[in-house]
Amino acid sequence: MLEPKIRAPKNRGFYVRMKLLPSKHGRSSVPQLEKKSFFYRNCKWVLWLSLSLYFFSSYLISNHPNQKNNNKPTSLSKTHFSSLASRALYESTTNNITQKQGLHFNGLKIFVYDLPAKYNTDWLKNERCSTHLFASEVAIHRALLTSEYLTVDPYEADFFFVPVYVSCNFSTVNGFPAIGHARSLIASAINLISTQYPFWDRSHGSDHVFVASHDFGSCFHTMEDVAISDGIPGFLKNSIVLQTFGVKQKHPCQEVENVVIPPYVSPESVLRTLEKSPVTGRRDIFAFFRGKMEVHPKNYNGDRRFFLQRHRFAGYQSEIVRSVFCLCPLGWAPWSPRLVESVALGCVPVIIADGIRLPFDDVVPWAEISVNVAEKDVGKLAEILEHVAATNLSAIQKNLWDPRVPRALMFNDRVHEGDATWRVLSALANKRPGRTEGREFRANRTPTAWTSWNWRKEKWFLPANGCA
């Protein structure tokens, strides 16, 4: 047993002496020390002298004149501004320089072209432009402008972002995006930047980044047969395209350096829903789907566990957050926005889209958070989901409800670590020259002959918005 005894020494400071006492059972805890030894009698003075010398020398070093000069904040390196850099770009850069600069992605730098408003912000007069499922083209642009990875010096840039909004033009007839102007608008933007800057011609556009957030991505058409016929515009063949379209098979509309990104879902709408019903709340709907269906759901009419509705409902996210399984079939193209909504609201996505390439599949553990059902097995859907519910549903939900998962699929107006724009930056960082591991989207493709198929003929359901 140890009993502390504190003495007040004659000199400055104090020391604590630990007296070794016999235990309660009469046995000594340790052998008695030889208290008469020279070391025992003088060790406290040696210890006191050593500590005094240590603190005195530390004080001298830290207050040395040269050391004071070395501790001055390091000034930022001189920045060279392009004559075409806008004031908005400059202010957003200087106001967002933080200690985190360069900690991620080995100092990645993105230059954003300051294009005339007719290429982007003029389209925002239509409010749907920044909230529709194709709005990632707007969100990425906004996030980059306030990002620590933004540079206003194009000569230090790794990549050049070309902010052209092509999905903001909505048809007044059906409300669907009309992107017939996309090719000419992008071609005009490229002509502008190639005449005013040397960077496009320098790399033949290989370090330039575009967004194609609509149905068939790089082909810039909403119908697959026309998209395939037109192919990828020649002026984009060397560039990098961020697109929602992606399949595992060889396809003309992904034969360009690309990153598969998620469709846009408003983070504000998700937060409003979760404020009323958390992901861990009561889920009284077994399987849910709302939207247009080409196949009548007669197989499930008598099964009340399946809540399948054709009609639109503005508050349908409140139904998703109450559901255990959410059906995520292909739409016009193989992808669908309800995939992101399901993940964000904690409903296990049931992916019914053969050959789909999922967004950020190198970091999002899709196999652990979703159920994949072959299109030919839709008739067995009840049996499949029953089996999952009886075996590993709790494990899937635990993985799905990890906050990092929905964060990776959501775009914000500012870059948040781990969010969708941050994942885009990560993918770009891996595509810099010398980083061949970032070319996985081309390298991992199976070099099999591609045969045309029509997704629309094969699909079972259409989304409520009728677009994807």
UniProtKB/TrEMBL annotation:
One of its GO terms (cellular component) is Golgi membrane. PANTHER family: EXOSTOSIN HEPARAN SULFATE GLYCOSYLTRANSFERASE -RELATED, GLUCURONOXYLAN GLUCURONOSYLTRANSFERASE IRX7-RELATED. Pfam families: Exostosin_GT47 (PF03016). Residues 106-387 form the Exostosin GT47 domain. The lineage of its organism: Eukaryota, Viridiplantae, Streptophyta, Embryophyta, Tracheophyta. The keyword Transmembrane applies. Belongs to the glycosyltransferase 47 family. InterPro entries: Exostosin (IPR004263), Exostosin_GT47 (IPR040911). It is a single-pass type II membrane protein. It comes from the Eukaryota. Keywords: Glycosyltransferase, Golgi apparatus, Signal-anchor, Transferase, Transmembrane. One of its GO terms (molecular function) is glycosyltransferase activity. This is Putative glucuronoxylan glucuronosyltransferase IRX7. GO terms for biological process: glucuronoxylan biosynthetic process. It is found in: Golgi apparatus membrane.
